[in-house]
Design goal:
Elements (H helix, E strand, L loop, with lengths): L4 H13 L2 H8 L3 H15 L4 E3 L4 E3 L1 H24 L8 E7 L1 H18 L3 E7 L2 H6 L5 E5 L8 E8 L1 E5 L1 H6 L12 E4 L9 E4 L5 E4 L2 E5 L3 H9 L5 E4 H9 L4 E2 L9 E7 L7 H14 L3 E2 L1
Helix pairs in contact: 1-2, 1-3, 1-4, 2-3, 5-10
Family: Belongs to the LysR transcriptional regulatory family.
Keywords: DNA-binding, Transcription, Transcription regulation
InterPro entries: LysR-type_TF_proteobact-type, LysR_HTH_N, LysR_subst-bd, WH-like_DNA-bd_sf, WH_DNA-bd_sf
């Protein structure tokens, strides 16, 4: 095989964006040239990487394997190039960060605004979505994750932590008896799978007194915003980060349940690939996150 890195790079971009025109824009070449690169790559490999129609394209099984193998190689090449340029104070290029929408909007965006002033030649792309899947696909350099990590193969660094409160709407509390904490096992719950992995939650009143909740799950979502809305519409009990609901509690739109008991404080971590040396731009941004958020308890 006559290896041509430009062909591989063109394919990786098409696979990432599912678009020839967007890949061309990213590579600063014509769409027709991208098409030529893909065709030549498929000919040299003797297999089809992309299934095309007039209106859409899809990555074939062979194409997905090729992408999974080569995206890591590309990251290593990019890192090596940056290293060869020297560990200078010149932070530039593109830093891609992904985080949950709610945390990113409240905490990460203000930090990006400050950080950008320190490094004006650095372009920062902040996306929202599922951090682990975005990081695994190679689309992002850093992923901000809330809660305990479950068997993560990525490296990570703790940047902060947060407290969650048990809450329900005033209407819900009027419709259900909440006099005894044992009711938490029988009333309907709204849950986020990210924070509910082991089938139970533990409420602690002191070092020696605790109550184990095995909730009756009626509703669920992977979005904190949607869970928040469900709680406001009186669908059930839930646990949400304190920073997200304090205003609602003060306005009596939500009620904190059993405030003498507390859920465990959960970490906020920034994750990155364990396969490559972390670029200077990413290290600087992580250090800045820790400096700004490391002493903050979001409770």
């Amino acid at each position: 095989m006559d290896f041509n890195y430009n062909r591989v790079l063109a394919y990786l971009k098409v696979a990432e964006f599912k678009s020839f025109s967007r890949a061309a824009a990213q590579l600063n070449i014509s769409t027709s040239m991208v098409s030529v690169h893909i065709k030549e790559l498929e000919l040299s490999l003797g297999t089809t990487l992309i299934s095309r129609t007039t209106r859409s394209l899809a990555i074939t099984e062979a194409g997905q394997r090729f992408y999974d193998d080569f995206i890591d190689i590309k990251q290593r090449i990019d890192c090596s190039i940056e290293t060869l340029k020297g560990e200078s104070e010149h932070v530039c290029g593109v830093l891609r960060v992904v985080s949950p929408r709610e945390y990113g909007s409240r905490f990460i965006v203000p930090i990006i605004a400050e950080f950008s002033k320190l490094y004006p030649q650095l372009k920062i792309v902040h996306d929202v979505g599922l951090p682990l899947s975005s990081l695994a696909s190679g689309k992002h350099d850093l992923a901000i994750c809330l809660g305990n990590l479950q068997d993560s193969s990525f490296k990570y660094r703790k940047i902060s932590e947060f407290q969650s409160y048990l809450i329900a709407s005033p209407e819900f509390t009027e419709q259900h008896s909440l006099e005894d904490i044992s009711c938490l096992n029988t009333l309907p719950w709204i849950t986020n799978e990210k924070f509910y992995k082991e089938g139970k939650w533990i409420l602690r009143k002191s070092r020696t007194e605790q109550f184990v909740i095995k909730p009756t799950i009626r509703y669920g979502s992977n979005s904190l915003t949607l869970i928040h809305r469900m709680a406001l519409f009186s669908l059930g009990i839930t646990a949400l980060p304190a920073w997200m609901i304090k205003d609602d509690i003060q306005a009596n739109k939500l009620i904190r349940l059993f405030p003498n008991y507390e859920l465990a404080v959960l970490p906020v971590n920034v994750l990155y690939s364990s396969c490559i040396k972390l670029p200077l731009k990413a290290r600087r941004f992580i250090d800045y996150l820790v400096a700004k958020l490391g002493t903050v308890h979001h409770g």
